Amino acid sequence: MIALLIRDFRLAMRAGGGFGLGLAFFLIVVTLVPFGVGPQSTLLATIAPGILWLGALLACLLSLDRIFALDWEDGSLDLLATSPLPMEALVTIKALAHWLTTGLPLVLAAPVFALLLNMPTEGYRPLIISLLLGTPALSVIGTFGAALTVGLKRGGLLLSLLVLPLYVPTLIFGAEMARRGAEGFDTTTPLLMLAGITCGTIALLPFASAAVLRVNLR
Amino acid sequence: MGLTVSDLTIARGGIRVLEGLSFALGAGQALVLRGPNGVGKTTLLRTIAGLQPPVSGRVKVPADALVYAGHADGIKATLTVRENLGFWAQAFGNSDITGAMEAFQLAPLGERPAGALSAGQKRRLGLARLLVTGRKIWVLDEPTVSLDVEAVAMFASAVRAHLAGGGLAVIATHIDLGLSEAQVLDVGPFKAKPLEHDDFDGAFL
């Protein structure tokens, strides 16, 4: 299992691995929004939590089709399926690798990008906590979508359409927590809901992803 | 240690390709599958490997004893030869790759990115993977594609050493590997007959 994680991490870091892809997209969204909505700093401060969450979500979405597509193309997925690694562990590791290479960098970069959007400083901590709690769910749900569309040529569009509705609860509670934090309100309720969604997806979805992957490999 | 296939019927894309297929292999035995393109050799091998379920019949394989090698080698272009092989060794719970590197003369290529290898060298890397898995049953689909004569001999001697060590192998191939001890099974006669009354719409008319 560790071997697969190390391999995926290595692949992401090497040329063409797409490590910076999500981060660069996040940066583009965040720098372009002030041009789009105008330079009123109060307006930017109001919409900053939502923009940051939306940017993180779309950046995550961008790299989803790589989770299984590359392994499927070069035959690794067939070979991994016949290896001692259970399919459930395989999809969990894949989701973890995706989070480490996409979600975690987004969480770490969020404070810098929040500065660009003039977000109130007291909102930084809730923002980071909400992203830290929410992005694993994005990776796990995304892995399920990637497993559903593996083997389809240009499955990226279908993948986005399948995954977006599943992302909505995470987005609602994540952005709500960041917004409440920025406005100085209590964040307990959205925090608990977000944590619940993430725990639920991590507990249940790997089984669904593994089942779907088995069917798709036939 | 043994592989038993009994009265197997398999389908590809919903169409039956082979039916009534039975064979048994014991330790140290090899089976070479022959048959024209599209007859269902790959589907048969994938069924044996457990990647797809049979329509009917049984495949009896001991647990965790089988390794499959398909048309694609599962090689990552940006990893070096050593890293590629090392990953598969670790995935199967082993760590030693020097024997496999030598058996397929990959040692001089060890630090090269796999993307820079020729087709034949890639195939040799793919076959070296079989050795590092330590599995007893090899299920190989066209293993000699893009190999030169020398490399085919390398492969044949690797198979022979594997059989001598109590392993077994099922190989689909079109060329003569020079494995005199291997049994040959022509799957052509087991080609599924088209169903006469496979009239789904008819049932509703």
UniProtKB/TrEMBL annotation, chain A:
Chain segments annotated as transmembrane: 12-37, 43-64, 96-116, 128-150, 157-178, 190-213
Coiled coil: none
Keywords assigned: Cell inner membrane, Cell membrane, Cytochrome c-type biogenesis, Membrane, Transmembrane, Transmembrane helix, Transport
Molecular function terms, GO-annotated: heme transmembrane transporter activity
Organism superkingdom: Bacteria
UniProt xrefs under InterPro entries: Cyt_c_biogenesis_CcmB, Cyt_c_CcmB_bac
Biological process, per Gene Ontology: cytochrome c biosynthetic process; cytochrome complex assembly
Record keyword Transmembrane present: yes
Membrane topology: Multi-pass membrane protein
One annotated Gene Ontology cellular component of this protein: plasma membrane
Subcellular location: Cell inner membrane
Family: Belongs to the CcmB/CycW/HelB family.
Function: Required for the export of heme to the periplasm for the biogenesis of c-type cytochromes.
Protein name (database record): Heme exporter protein B
The species this protein was found in: Roseovarius lutimaris
Organism ancestry: Bacteria, Pseudomonadati, Pseudomonadota, Alphaproteobacteria, Rhodobacterales
Automatic annotation (TrEMBL), chain B:
Stated name of the protein: Heme exporter protein A
Domain of life: Bacteria
Domain spans labelled ABC transporter: 3-205
InterPro entries noted in UniProt: AAA+_ATPase, ABC_transporter-like_ATP-bd, ABC_transporter-like_CS, ABC_transptr_haem_export_CcmA, P-loop_NTPase
Matches recorded under Gene3D superfamilies: P-loop containing nucleotide triphosphate hydrolases
A matching Pfam family: ABC_tran
GO molecular function: ATP binding; ATP hydrolysis activity; transmembrane transporter activity
GO biological process entries: cytochrome complex assembly
Keyword entries, A-Z: ATP-binding, Cytochrome c-type biogenesis, Membrane, Nucleotide-binding, Translocase, Transport
